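Help!! Second protein's tokens look totally different from the first
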Amino acid sequence: MAMEGKESLYDAPASEVQQNQSSPRKSTPPPDNEEKATHVRFLLSNVEAGSIIGKGGSTINDFQSQSGARIQLSRNYEYFPGTSDRIVTVSGMVDDIMKAIDLILTKLLDEFYAAEGGDVDPQSRIRLVVPNSSCGGIIGKGGVIIKSLIEESHAGIKISPQDNFYPGLHDRLVTVSGTFGEQIKAIELILLKLVEDPYYQQSVNAAFSYSVAYNGMNYGPDVVGRKYQNTRFQNKEDRNSSLTIGIPDEHIGIVVGRGGRSIMEISQLSGARVKISDRGDFMSGTSDRKVTITGPQTAVHIAETMISRKVASVSER
């Protein structure tokens, strides 16, 4: 969740958080779809995630007890590709999930008010993580469904284009913007559409959804909502290997990324270790820096592909 033009602060202890927002759901009788078990995933910054977890896990445990839903977060520094945000997965019955989201968003807003002293509903946004194959059910033919969702909730709803840059990424971001009440209403409407999707429902039974083999890789179920490779259990045939490739010196920056974020993402997604030679240390007879990739053969191949695509995207400009 991100405040537009504001920076969220998290100083108030969980015991002082007051649920002073009236949920727009209380006056609406629950539809039949709310009797189905499902899940919803969204992104939070590290600071926001820490606030939701609370000291010793006190806040997240309290929210689970109050809502009846299960709340899980990806590990620290395990981010959704292309972002520096962690993935939150809330699972259970639809009504319980919405209670949990209500608690989470209210806490963040309460702490925002405590820090800023505001008395007007701030405009904020939350990014949901939705499988590519399920986005059609939200958009509808000619965009008719997403238009109706926007009209009914009064929230802004935008779906990111399909990203083919990251191997194994089958998810898109659905950004919901507006006031607290508008966001809650929009999230509920979107979730009720997703519940109708058999593929989305099947993913509930998968470990954190979509933790399945992709191109022969072994993905671990211990990371919420993402397909980071499980390097603990490798096939005997998939022994460690090493590959050194040359990358033009002027393109090294795109591989490393700001603050090393890109190279960290490549390592996290592929399961390989990526090391770049020092300045002036070139491949023999060239001005290309050495990029050494080590790890299981499959991981090395995935990392090489990701690096090549990054460099190609710059070269084509």
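Here's the second one for comparison:
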Amino acid sequence: MTEYSNNAIPLEGTGAATTDAYSRGNESTINNPDDFDVEAARNKEDASLNSREDVLSRMRTAQSITMSPELFEKLYLSPERAVKGNLRQTFANPTPLAILSHAVCACPLGCDLLGLRGAGQFGAASIGAYVFIGGLLLIISGIFEFFLGNTFSFVVFCSFGGFWLSFAGTLIPSFNSVGAYSPTGDSQVLGISTRAFQASFAFYLCFWALLVLVLTICSLRTNIAFFLLFVCLEATFLCLTIAYFTLAEGKYALGQNIVKAGGGCLLTCGLIGFYIFIVLMLVAVDFPFLLPVGDLSHLMKGYQQKHGPIKVH
């Protein structure tokens, strides 16, 4: 008599008995539960399914972490650099949050400087946004870029987070940054119109223009959209620097016109930021189509790409 294994497959035998027993395997499985371990069969089937799911999971993971240098640059606004660990596959991309926070603050301030629909007063109505969106969110994003190994994004986001916080501090009455220049020492209205404040503020903007110039040059290794954002930002700081030096000389009408020019540049900068934010979000959700940013990283080869790792002597 032919014996059966737990999987209802006949053991080796000879002659017609073996063939006949094999043909009745399914019937034996159903009618003779003592000869067939159902639980073992289910466990084996579950193990097989889990094995297939593990393989598919590894395939999906491998696909999700493989990206071209162009896609990396689009996601992080920084040329790809080799870093240790797999933090970029562990944590979310902080870049869209940083771009959004800057755009949300830059656009309203640009409208204020332009004086659209009666807006003005240096955007004092948006002090809360400058502190909690422009300042706090940019610095948090910059810290995450630091841990991901993206030095350029880290410097850009943290420095501009500091700018929005310092700009808000200038407008907050309790800081008395403006009022200290008034004859009474505490009047915001009188202080902002003094020559000393206008010239001092112009120097602050002047050195920000110098910093942005350096960042603009560095952005040539990223993409056209990010580069244009820095170009507009550089134009903003230059216009406002010239405007406040002009106001300090007593040329009020000319100075106000240059302020409006700076406001227009800042508004354009903010709108470009919104475009970059949309691009990043479309990539993040794997949208069916993507928007172009004009990759520049392949046009200007880096020093290490040409000469190998930098040697410190």
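Reply: Different proteins will give different token patterns, so don't panic. The first helix runs from residue 15 to 23.
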